[in-house]
Amino acid sequence: MVKVWQHLLKDVVTPDYCIGCGSCVATCPVQALERVNEKPALKGVCINCGICYGTCPEVVDPSSLQTQVFGTPPNDELIGTYKHALSVEANDPGVKIRAQDGGAVTALLSSLLEIGYIDAAIVTGTAEAPWYPVVRVATTPKEVLECAGTKYSRGPISLGLREAVNMYYRKKVAVVGTPCQIIASRRMGLSTPRNEHISDAIKLRVGLFCSGVFKYEDFFKNIVEKSLQIPLASVNKFDLKNEKLIIYLKHGPSRELPLREIRKYIDLPCRICSNFSAEMADISIGYVGSPAGRSTVLIRTELGEEAFAEAGKLGKFSVIDLASVQPGLEGIRQGALKKKTSAAQAIEALRREKKVLPVWLEQPSGETIAEPIESDKGICHI
Ligand SMILES: Cc1cc2nc3c(=O)[nH]c(=O)nc-3n(C[C@H](O)[C@H](O)[C@H](O)COP(=O)(O)OP(=O)(O)OC[C@H]3O[C@@H](n4cnc5c(N)ncnc54)[C@H](O)[C@@H]3O)c2cc1C
Q1: Considering the entire predicted model, what is its pTM?
Q2: Which of 50, 82, 160, 297 would bridge 2 by S-S if both were Cys, CB 3.0 to 4.6 A apart?
Q3: 346-375 pLDDT, tens per residue?
Q4: Cβ of 271: how many Cβ atoms within 10 Å?
Q5: 226 and 206 belong to one structural domain
């Protein structure tokens, strides 16, 4: 008994819980789904296989994959399972200048590509529309570097994965993504049935710490560009730190927006997300925990341990123990606690306002027996 596209439409897309990761589109074995206006839409004939529902990150409690991924409960309730906590800095000044923090993500991926540990990395850059997230298949360190830096909106990283597999014939792909995107990449490999042609190509999952994303049109175009009169093309860097969004301009002084004033533009799925440190990744990377100009790295799995050690042999980054810097692990714990608390409050508010709740709160497993529902192509028999 599986849930299929029409359930995904009803449970996720219509109530606006879709994160636009493109996983359902990428794994559809008959290419019946397409991404339209950042959301999936049925364009072909659905065969009711249920792969799209099985891969969606928004139909399960973020912590529900813990046992499947790690085999044991987390060793830290707030930040999940990890083996090593480190503070990392890229050695190349050219990387440091383009990177968001210490350049750990870029240095790690470049090293792994150079030694052939991975044959592609799915990264998020921008193209013609300034700061609009565009997913790219990077096969060289130069392409990885071009996508360094944080974009505070989400792109369809799973479509990048599909492109890497179907057009570049890549088999050892690293995906870089926010906690929800990493959950999608895990579900792709763990759910039944699955599209192994796509999911088996994932070699490594690099998660980013995340306190939420903004919708490009609502926030960056309407607020930053139209209301605040800051042309997006004039922005050198956005940085969400210490409860404010700092906007560094290419020319002139930077601007700051307090987070409390712009929190309402944070995307709905992020407001109820309790996963700060990308708990399901092989390696998670953020800034909190380390001094400015460094990246904090949590190595969570054996695979993450191996990849990090192999990459380290190239000497592109320097590593110190997170325990030797301030605020260290405690900083990550505080970030995680804040996100878990505000997610719980947001869920309570949704309940009070009698809004549609995410399906995993209504049906905790997210995998309950499906009722047949009317589809625009007839009844889905499940
Ligand atoms: C939306 C968002 C919110 C974040 N919030 C926090 C936070 O609250 N606290 C914290 O400690 N860290 C946060 N981070 C992580 C932080 O901004 C840096 O990405 C991290 O510290 C790594 O820095 P770096 O210099 O090592 O990365 P870089 O070497 O600069 O590489 C960054 C990598 O991130 C990828 N990337 C950029 N934007 C996106 C995106 N939107 N989706 C998927 N991948 C992307 C790029 O492809 C690139 O490979 C957030 C990241 C994102 C995307």
Answers
A1: 0.95
A2: 50
A3: 999 999 999 999 999 875 444 433 444 444
A4: 18
A5: no
